[in-house]
Amino acid sequence: EPEVTQTPSHQVTQMGQEVILRCVPISNHLYFYWYRQILGQKVEFLVSFYNNEISEKSEIFDDQFSVERPDGSNFTLKIRSTKLEDSAMYFCASNLGGNQPQHFGDGTRLSIL
Amino acid sequence: GDSVTQMEGPVTLSEEAFLTINCTYTATGYPSLFWYVQYPGEGLQLLLKATKADDKGSNKGFEATYRKETTSFHLEKGSVQVSDSAVYFCALLKTSYDKVIFGPGTSLSVIP
Predict the structure, then answer these.
(1) CA–CA distance, B98 with B75 (Å, rounded to integer)
(2) What per-residue confidence (pLDDT) applies to B97?
(3) How far, CA to CA in Å, does A102 sit from each of A7, A30, A57, A113, B33?
(4) CB A67 within 8 A of CB A51
(5) Which helix (H) or strand (E) holds B7?
(6) Which has the closest alpha carbon to B76: B53, B96, B56, B103?
(7) What is the pLDDT of residues B5-45, one digit of tens each?
(8) How confident is the model at residue A46 (pLDDT cuts 50, 70, 90)?
(9) Are residues A43 and B93, on separate chains, in Cβ contact within 8 Å?
(10) Are B98 and A103 a contacting pair at CB < 8 A?
(11) What's the CA gap between A3 and A93, in Å, rounded?
């Protein structure tokens, strides 16, 4: 069964550094998402992306965050200047749109030191 | 705004016990409802779904019925196994916006 893949599985970065999290969504999916889960807390929506542009973003997704689909397969989340509170598990998801289930990757654990 | 509430646990059961994890939602319109499961150290896996009232989603012995009159989507399993130990998330999705809204998750531990 096709799946969403994310790399790396764990990223350790110094505060203030830029980090790029990578995702390969399911190949025929059209909508792409990023969520995060701070340890022990709820899974929170960050951003959705369709037709090469952001379709919705949460208040968490401020100017330090950006997303890109640089080619036909990858979908990336960039945090420009990381803060301690960015430490979390970041999940990528994709779906065909509408009320179709979103399929999630295994996540990237981001640790900011 | 739209939201999902579920019992937070942790829930500890003996193997072969009956499981119920309650989930209720608040949403306008007709959302689709989902249960996702997160095994230790892993990502979110779709467990089951229901897209309209009275639909029953089922998978791996788990079931949940979309009850619009009580705005509920309770997860049940007749006989749990140690391998069912995980965190279970109830969630909703509306076509009017893209994001999945998750409940807080319920941690389940099944002991032999």
Answers:
(1) 24
(2) 62
(3) 19, 11, 16, 31, 11
(4) no
(5) none
(6) B56
(7) 998 789 999 999 999 999 999 998 889 999 999 998 888 99
(8) very high
(9) no
(10) no
(11) 10
